[in-house]
Batch of 2 targets.
Target 1
Amino acid sequence: MEERVGLATIAREWGRIGITGFGGPPAHILLLRRLCVEQRRWLGAAEFEDGIAATNLLPGPASTQLAVFTAWRLRGPAGALVGGAAFIVPGLVLILLLSALFLAGDPPRWVLGAAAGAGAAVPAVALQAATALVPASRQRAGGGAARRRWCGYLAAGALAALLTGPWLVLVLIATGITEIAVRRPGGGTSDRRPRGLLPLLAPATAATGGIGALAWVAFKVGALSYGGGFVIIPLMQQDAVHRYHWMTDGQFLNAVALGQITPGPVVQTVAVVGYAAAGVAGGLLAACVAFAPSFLFVLFGAAHFDRLRADRRVQDFLTGAGPAVIGAIAGSTVPLALGLHAWWQAAVLALALFWLLALRRSVVPCLLAAGALGTLAVTAGLPLP
């Protein structure tokens, strides 16, 4: 790359994507490619595709890591920090403002209706996210015994989401390590851990409550999650709702919906959980902890991404952990659906399932329409959950 891109330019362009990037990772990747490859020609097409492949090997929010990585390619560490912050901050500010509205002590009735309507569609969104990941993961696994293991990992992830709560991350790591051991020449287990994945093997212990617990929940989202934004649901729900009681089931559904309808990374949902736990300071802390690993992975690992992609053990780990992630996302739809209490929310959920799975339409209009239906329902005198 010959052109030296200014930090002000990076801040402006990555900030614009952070403001207009509705629709999750596919939209973010499209906007980044259009900017860096097609319009400005700062990066070659192959270089950009390699960046997607490398960041998809890492845990945490892949589109955020791609935003940080492309900015790093243009201006090194300073570019990564400026570009990543510009990409994240607009959505973070918006979602904290919406958190103050939706989680207020006595919000207007129409706000509660909109939240209940959008929340009713969230199980359908999670199920769509899981089904969309199945074909590529199944093809990656291969046939024969590998396909049977794939089915086993899928089931393990689903059961873990239903039964293990905050310890789901251990199941995800175990499935990845199992696949490494099985595919290792000669079979059997190995005490060698995959290089480049050491952050995934952090101690799975949390503080008993308070700020330490919030930081641990956010850390799991940023450093110990695989498979895209929706794996945050099973990683956070048990802690946020049942273990620490920061939120009700309905409020957690609202948090997931807010993460979907605001621009920028879906992982912004963690800021809503932080806000519920400790106000604005908690929201900012949760966001900082959740996004810090993305910056660290790029700042300290970007120069080694090619070697990471070529590491067979890394590929095997993801082959095992991938279906477990899909199962966990699918399994999370059960407790999400059980969190719906008003009868009309079941009708909204059915409409959302038809929209997303039968018609295969996009998520953001679905959530906005579900919120509008919720407002109409309570305006017509139907009960709030």
Target 2
Amino acid sequence: MNAAALRAAAATRYPAFLARLSELVEIDSGSRQVDGLRKVAARLAGYAAEAGAQVRTTAISDEDGCALGDAVIARISGSGTRRILLAAHLDTVFPPGTAQARPLTVDGAAGRAYGPGVCDDKGGLLAGLAAVEVLTSLGAGRFGELVLVATPDEEIGSVGSRPLLAELAATADAILCLECARDNGDLVSARKGVADVEIDLHGRAAHAGIEPERGANAALAAARLTVALQSIDGVNVGVLQAGTRPNVVADRARLVVDVRAAEPAAYEAALADITRLAGTPLVDGVSATIRVVAPTPPWSGGEGTGWLLRAAEQVGAELGLTVTHAATGGCADANLLAASGVPVLDGLGPVGGGDHGPDEWLDLQSVVPRVALLAGLIDRISQPALIDAENDATRRTAYVPSHPPTQ
């Protein structure tokens, strides 16, 4: 596709992108803030319908039946055969009141926008929609179908959206995730697996001064377990709580453990080691119960990701952009989607940084070129000859990240 036409069409979409970004950032939509999440979903559904998509929303709930908000699924049909899935999320990590306290602001001198969720992931979400609009405006419908999905619970591990993501991934030929590019412009070609492990220790209370021997000290067991767990690669005990009063032998304690690993074998080994250690009696009379929350397996890239990266590099070269990529320590829906075996590439939103913090930012100067890159990539991989694994030998060529993994 003509690079100049891509850039021009992306530039035409920029004013609407910025106006929509302001609208979405100024709605509180932290995970489990259902009213705000539904408002953001309704806005997105409206934007997508204006772009000519067939749109539906579906209610998402957690395993206890608690509402999490609505997911948006927007579909646009083309003239080809390949289905491309674009994946993003609606939720942020910020508490109620943040949007009012920190609405979208633009620093013209720096070329940056600031606000809660401005890059994670509202900027990426809107860039995906803008890329769809670019393609439709240019009549570039060589895809069979473009499917844009936006979920309300990514920041809490997509605890309710996993079945929907698995369903959509199973019918896709390629998956492009719209988390923003790293702050140096890198796309994301791999992500560590993550799990939270909650360990509750159950002991027996007793008077610490008169008859401590009648007790079973859960605090002591928690301390010993913490030391043991910290010896496992990729494991961090982030929460340790125990007891009620200093003169009572603690009858309960609680640990919350973060697990991260780049490879599936290491991820499974870490979880197995935690289970083994927690089940080992460290103090007589103290037992443990374990709960693994939202386990998200590693996405270690691979042949399909390498193929998508080469396609992105080719489109970038035509646009005058140097495409680089890196592995990262944070997980995202890309991890879950990659479990389908379909090729996945992430970090395809604009450049941004400061995620989850008070200074989260989006590089506004990157919006037009990154929207053009995404639109060009969609068009490139929509061509059957390029996506066919049997006929495309380059897809099976190994690749090396441009930058080393980050923590």
